[in-house]
Amino acid sequence: MVDMLYAITLVPTVLLSTLRSDDDGFDKMNYKYTVALLILFSTITATKQFDDDRIECWSRANYIKPYVDYTNQICYISSTYYIDRNKTIPTNIQDR
């Protein structure tokens, strides 16, 4: 835990540091802003993966919200297939 806090305190030092004087603007952009952008984009991607709206599966109209949430979680972890919203779902299981 202490190592993590130490690493977090180093982030402003690395991003705002002016210790190197032999770098031009492109080098500074490479090691400062690129790392910050990669961290930002990876955080956005990780939060989207753990968001509740990962996938929306078909569920019955009379399901209450916990049932719908459970159905969506099961659809996310099991093998699913895509059906266009404009098409009807086949009644024959073999056609599905």
Automatic annotation (TrEMBL):
Major subcellular site: membrane
Cleaved signal peptide residues: 1-16
A Pfam family this chain is assigned to: Innexin
Record-level GO cellular component terms: gap junction; plasma membrane
Record's subcellular location: Cell membrane
GO biological process terms, semicolon-separated: monoatomic ion transmembrane transport
Tagged with keyword Cell membrane: yes
Key word Glycoprotein present: no
UniProt topology in membrane: Multi-pass membrane protein
Keywords: Cell membrane, Ion channel, Ion transport, Membrane, Signal, Transmembrane, Transmembrane helix, Transport
Function: Structural component of the gap junctions.
Similarity comment: Belongs to the pannexin family.
Name of the protein in question: Innexin
Gene this chain is encoded by: inx
